[in-house]
Design brief:
By secondary structure, this protein is of the alpha/beta class. 28% of the residues lie in helices and 28% in strands. A hairpin with a 2-residue loop joins strand 2 and strand 3.
Length: 238
């Protein structure tokens, strides 16, 4: 089942991206001549998403104006001007806009080049089974990752995910895109919390699955990473 609704997490302050975010939200930093949020919107639209919910906080008016110009897409705003709510809190606030069916959820600082265009999100939606999982994550191999300064996020047992835990490193990184049941946040009392908190509770129960992308993932988290991604896209487009 391909989700028709997507939640785009665009409310972050983008402090690591300064000075590029001194006058704009991180979502409007450009890579390859296009805003980061447009890269993600277009990816998800091509994968089958028809309705988009975008949360806003920093430079919210500017981001809203940009999104209003996207007349090709059905986009509504989840307003987080009053307070940052993190990933889980943002999803919880947006719940009335998202409905009850499974959704795409995505960060905006993720750009990638696939060995076969469109295969990654197709594989993720093919894996998704709401009877057997509560979230399905798109993953990149550590050796095909740039701009990520961690030691890896997950191990994979079949298609089920296990957090790195006390291990010194893990081979797979979360790419910032997943399919989830929106109800995953319904039992959390806090206003601001991370989705990873919920995943850590569900993974040992076999409820968090994943697909590994065949391609190169560029985490665009700071100006240096943005420059690397810009260079990679330029080589591709020659």
């Amino acid at each position: 089942m391909i989700p028709e609704t997507a939640f785009i997490l665009a409310a972050g302050l983008g402090t690591r991206m300064r000075p590029l975010t001194n006058d704009r939200p991180k979502a409007l930093v450009e890579v390859g001549g296009r805003a980061l949020i447009d890269h993600m919107l277009d990816r998800l639209a091509a994968a089958g998403a028809k309705h988009f919910v975008v949360n806003v906080h920093a430079f919210a008016d500017r981001l809203e104006a940009h999104l209003k110009a996207r007349t090709d897409l059905d986009i509504v705003i989840s307003d987080e001007r009053e307070a940052l709510l993190e990933t889980g809190g943002g999803l919880k606030k947006a719940r009335p806009l998202l409905g009850e069916d499974p959704i795409w959820a995505a960060n905006i600082d993720s750009v990638w080049l696939e060995d076969i265009d469109g295969a990654a999100l197709k594989a993720l939606s093919s894996l998704w089974n709401p009877d057997e999982m509560d979230a399905a994550l798109l993953l990149a191999r550590m050796e095909r990752t740039t701009g990520f300064d961690g030691a890896g996020d997950f191990f994979m047992d079949g298609d089920r995910l296990r957090f790195r835990g006390e291990a010194s490193s893990a081979p797979l990184n979360y790419m910032g895109v997943h399919i989830t049941k929106p109800q995953i946040v319904d039992g959390v009392d806090e206003a601001a919390f991370s989705l990873a908190k919920i995943w850590r509770e569900l993974a040992p129960k076999g409820r968090i699955a994943g697909v590994v992308m065949d391609g190169d993932w560029m985490h665009v988290g700071d100006p240096a990473a943005r420059d690397i991604a810009e260079g990679r896209l330029a080589v591709r487009d020659r």
